[in-house]
Specification:
This protein is rod-shaped. The chain contains two helices and no strands. With 119 residues, it is mostly helical. The longest helix is centred in the middle third of the chain and has 87 residues, at 32-118.
Amino acid sequence: MFNRALLSTRTQLSRAAATRNLHATPVPLKSATEKVSEVADKLNKSFGKGLASAIETGEEATGKTKEVLGAKKDEAADAAGTAKAKAQDTAQTAQTKASETASEASQKKNEFAAEQRSK
């Protein structure tokens, strides 16, 4: 009886081992195509967000540059106007002094000519 019990136990173990080898894999919920499609979609969205962020940063930089250049342009125009006014004043002063000097030279020439005649 002990032999039969041992034999039946071995038979049961071998049957259990045989049934363990047979197993079913779970059916995948998504196909490979669907998974690839999802990964591509996520990649596309993240890439698009990165590009949108870069474009916004570029637009902000462009706006700031325009503001700075506009202010510098106004400053340059003011400086040019001031320089032009100073140049005109200097030119007028130089012209006045040149006229005075020419007048004095003409006067001295006349005086010299008068001295030469009287000699």
